[in-house]
From TrEMBL:
Its EC number is 2.4.2.21. It comes from Laceyella putida. It is an enzyme of class 2 (transferase). Belongs to the CobT family. This is Nicotinate-nucleotide--dimethylbenzimidazole phosphoribosyltransferase. Keywords: Cobalamin biosynthesis, Glycosyltransferase, Transferase. The gene is cobT. One of its GO terms (molecular function) is nicotinate-nucleotide-dimethylbenzimidazole phosphoribosyltransferase activity. It holds the Pfam family DBI_PRT.
Length: 348
């Protein structure tokens, strides 16, 4: 299956933005990653002064059959409880979204909840995945449906005026499929990639490594067939997030990833459609070891290292002020020409 996206970057604006940032009254390159953010935002939006005023965060939710293997420190029911907590506005990501001016959109693509509380979008493809140590997590068709749900949500947000997006997830047990996907896509070994997620015990940690190894052995996932890989060892919210990134590339919308699971979904989306890479931004570096491996594979540097390991898009929303700063600096700083001077960098 191909998900059509347009080539997102406007090369003419990229050149103009690169020149503009080089002419600002500061040593060349001294604003580091903020300069790169600004130039790429300009390329994605096609605007020399990108409008990223209206922001949203999408939280994809789903449950995991592999939780039955005892791979998480928390019971599966916490996924549903947290969906209710998002509705009340009381989760970490809600607080951060209020602080940084972002709308929160929660999408249930496959929790175990029988009644999905409004305004959560009920896009349940099925109630949780199957245990992937025994068989595929879901069918290819189900993975496709969840992916398309993510694409549709992003299309709606873009139509409603959203100009910067964060993507995150909720799903107890999902650092296990997140790490399995990372292992399959990077080829790195399970020992070096597996972390403790919510803080699983030593016993749970060994079960987790065992579950991932077993899944890789049974399914032999092929990185050149990303949708099938997603169906076998992924998750419904992972598919939903992959759809968000595909949708963002299609809509020309900059999108900020969070930690391990959202970045695993992003690498899957890039494997499905390489143009997705152009609209992706890394926010923070998760404690989960597989996260750094995924970012390396994507060739992206995290902006914040704060020892976080939460998911929910908390790190992504936390990075929003850096995006506003990047755009504001480019818009408001004087150029050397404004001061009536040649750019000192161009005369030495
Ligand atoms: C109360 C609570 C809130 C959360 N918010 C995000 N996660 C995070 O932890 C889970 C993954 O870790 P593991 O694979 O170890 O289960 C995911 O739901 C992720 O979003 C949470 C976990 C809990 C317990
Ligand atoms: O890196 C993450 O996104 C993460 C880490 C631990 C638990 N949940 C998510």
């Amino acid at each position: 299956m191909r998900f059509n996206t347009r080539t997102p970057l406007d090369q003419d604006i990229i050149m103009k933005a690169t020149q503009h940032v080089a002419n600002l009254t500061k040593p060349l390159g001294s604003l580091g990653a903020l300069e790169e953010i600004y130039v790429r935002l300009a390329g994605i939006t096609g605007q020399l002064h990108p409008d990223i005023g209206q922001k949203a965060v999408v939280i994809m939710c789903g449950d995991h059959g592999v939780a039955a293997e005892g791979v998480s420190a928390y019971p599966q029911a916490v996924t549903g409880l947290m969906i209710h907590n998002f509705v009340k506005g009381k989760a970490a990501v809600n607080v951060l979204a209020r602080q940084h001016g972002a709308e929160v959109r929660v999408v249930d693509v496959g929790s175990l909840l029988d009644e999905v509380p409004p305004p959560v979008l009920n896009r349940q493809v099925r109630k949780g995945t199957a245990n992937f140590t025994e068989g595929p997590a879901m069918s290819v068709n189900e993975a496709k449906q969840a992916t398309e749900a993510g694409m549709a949500v992003v299309r709606e947000l873009k139509e409603q005026g959203v100009r910067l997006l964060a993507v995150g997830e909720m799903g107890i047990g999902n650092t296990t499929p997140g790490t399995a996907v990372a292992a399959a896509l990077t080829g790195l070994d399970v020992d070096s990639l597996t972390g403790r997620g919510t803080g699983v015990s030593n016993e749970g940690f060994h079960k987790k490594q065992q579950a991932i190894r077993q899944a890789l052995a049974i399914h032999r996932p092929d990185p050149s067939r990303p949708l099938e890989l997603l169906a076998r060892i992924g998750g419904l919210e992972i598919a939903g997030m992959a759809g968000c990134y595909l949708g963002a590339a299609k809509e020309g919308l900059p999108v900020v990833m969070d930690g391990l699971i959202s970045t695993a979904a992003a690498l899957l989306a890039v494997k499905m459609e390489p143009a997705v890479r152009e609209v992706l931004f890394a926010s923070h570096l998760s404690v989960e070891p597989a996260h750094a491996a995924l970012l390396r594979e994507l060739g992206l540097e995290p902006l914040i290292t704060a020892g976080m390991r939460l998911g929910e898009a908390s790190g992504a929303v936390l990075s929003f002020p850096l995006f506003d700063s990047a755009v504001g600096l480019a818009r408001e700083m004087a150029t050397f020409a404004d001061l009536g001077l040649p750019n000192p960098a161009s005369i030495t």
